[in-house]
Amino acid sequence: MTNDDAIAPESDEEEGARLPDEAIVTRGGLSTADTLCKTALAHFDVHNEFGISVRCKPPMTADQLALVDPPLPQKQLRETTVGALREAGFDVVPDEPPPTHALIMLQPVPTDDDYLRITAIFGQPRQNPAFTKEER
Amino acid sequence: MRSRLVRELSVWADFNAFDEDHRVRTSLRFAPEHPTEGEWVWLHDDEGNRVYGIVEHIEGLAVQIRAEMTTWRSDVSIATPRRRGAFHAAMPQGRPPTEAHLAA
Asked: Would the CB atoms of B18 and A70 count as touching at under 8 Å?
């Protein structure tokens, strides 16, 4: 893999600092309700809490986040903001390492409706610039 | 090239959870057959993405797998996300999952 254009995130942010509402949140792939349910269950099995992996590091854009090493490998990505997720009742917290990794936090026992609401908050899928550069 | 697969196992993973070394920690709850440490498996999602990986560590349902990204394949085209699928239909609609679901 080549990551010549990968953008290193800023590292001077205080660990555990609250992410601002305007911060961009992105996930590689389509992030269907099925996928979000599966990843939350998998996260529970590994970490004993329900969370969904995302990338978020203000003031980075979704394209910049996708290019952070390791680049998002999927063809597509979707994006939203921390504020949009918080408005629906889902906080987003930093979870580095790896760089820019964050978690959408879910209630102790999430419902199907949670996953449907989260997938609806994300924008439509679009091409992932990190995938295009890999020419897979 | 000679295959390193003695048996072909697949493990579901969220490729958003890779670390800097392309390791991912996921669950074996979706694996039809459980691998052993040191075994090569397919990591896959539900969107046509897959990659070979080696199982580094297993603890209960939790498994750590390091992907060999030179084997990455992505065969999907952009599509509108589905609202519900087979897996979702198997979950209790509108109700929290039971202990049995969480232990499955």
From this structure: yes
Residue A123 with chain B: CB contacts under 8 Å: none
- Positions in chain A short of pLDDT 50: 1-14, 133-135
Residue A118's H or E segment, with its range, is helix A112-121
Both tokens of residue B80? 């509108």
Rg (CA), chain A: 14
Average pLDDT value over all residues in chain B: 75
Distances, alpha carbon A70 to alpha carbons A4, A53, A122, B50, B95, in Å: 12, 14, 22, 16, 37
Output phi, psi for A82, to 5 deg: -60, -40
Phi, psi angle pair for A46, to nearest 5°: -90, -40
Query: pLDDT, tens digit, for every residue of A61-83?
Result: 999 999 999 999 999 999 999 99
Touching check for B7 and chain A: CB below 8 Å? Answer: no
Answer whether A39's CB lies under 8 Å from B16's CB: yes
Residue corresponding to tokens 């990843």:
A39
Q: Is B1 helix (H, G, I), strand (E, B) or coil?
A: coil
